[in-house]
C-alpha cells in the first residue's frame, strides 16, 4: 500500500486502500462475527458494522420477508456489501 505524507498524518492514496485500512483496523480484515463496541452497540463483520449503519445505508440485499438482523449480519460478513454500506453511512 502506498501512503503519501501529510504533516503530521498519513493519507491513503485511493478509496480502495482507505477501505482496506479501515478493514484491517476494525477486524484484521476477517469477518470475526459480532462484538460489543465502546458505545454498547453490537458491531459485526469486516467493518464491525452496527444495525444503525445498516439501516442508514438502506439495508442492501435484504429480502422483502427477510429478518432485518439476519440481513444485517449477512451483509456485515460480506466484504463488498459491508464496504458499500459503510461508504453510504460515512457520506450520509
In terms of topology, how is this protein built?
Elements: E1 3-6, E2 9-12, H1 15-27, E3 34-36, E4 42-44, E5 49-50, H2 51-56, H3 68-76, H4 79-90
Antiparallel strand pairs: 1-2, 3-4, 4-5
GO molecular function: lysozyme activity
Catalytic activity: Hydrolysis of (1->4)-beta-linkages between N-acetylmuramic acid and N-acetyl-D-glucosamine residues in a peptidoglycan and between N-acetyl-D-glucosamine residues in chitodextrins
EC number: 3.2.1.17
- Tell me about the biggest sheet? 3 strands, antiparallel
Query: How many DSSP helices?
Result: 4
Total beta strands: 5
Shape: globular
SSE string: EEHEEEHHH
Radius of gyration: 14 Å
- Kindly report how far apart the N and C termini lie: 27 Å
- Low-confidence runs: 1-7
- Average pLDDT reading: 86
**Proportion of residues in helical segments:** 40-55%
Structural class label: alpha+beta
Strand arrangement, major sheet: 3-4-5
Strand content: 15-25%
EC number: 3.2.1.17
InterPro entries: Invert_lysozyme
Catalytic activity: Hydrolysis of (1->4)-beta-linkages between N-acetylmuramic acid and N-acetyl-D-glucosamine residues in a peptidoglycan and between N-acetyl-D-glucosamine residues in chitodextrins
Disulfide bonds: 23-29, 34-44, 57-85, 75-81
Amino acid at each position: 500500500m502506498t501512503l503519501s505524507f501529510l504533516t503530521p498524518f498519513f493519507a491513503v492514496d485511493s478509496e480502495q486502500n482507505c477501505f482496506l485500512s479501515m478493514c484491517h483496523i476494525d477486524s484484521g480484515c476477517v469477518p470475526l462475527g459480532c462484538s460489543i463496541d465502546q458505545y454498547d452497540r453490537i458491531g459485526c463483520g469486516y467493518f464491525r458494522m452496527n444495525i444503525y449503519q445498516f439501516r442508514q445505508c438502506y439495508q442492501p440485499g435484504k429480502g422483502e420477508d427477510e429478518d432485518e438482523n439476519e440481513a444485517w449480519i449477512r451483509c456485515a460478513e460480506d466484504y463488498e456489501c459491508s464496504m458499500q454500506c459503510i461508504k453510504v453511512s460515512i457520506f450520509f
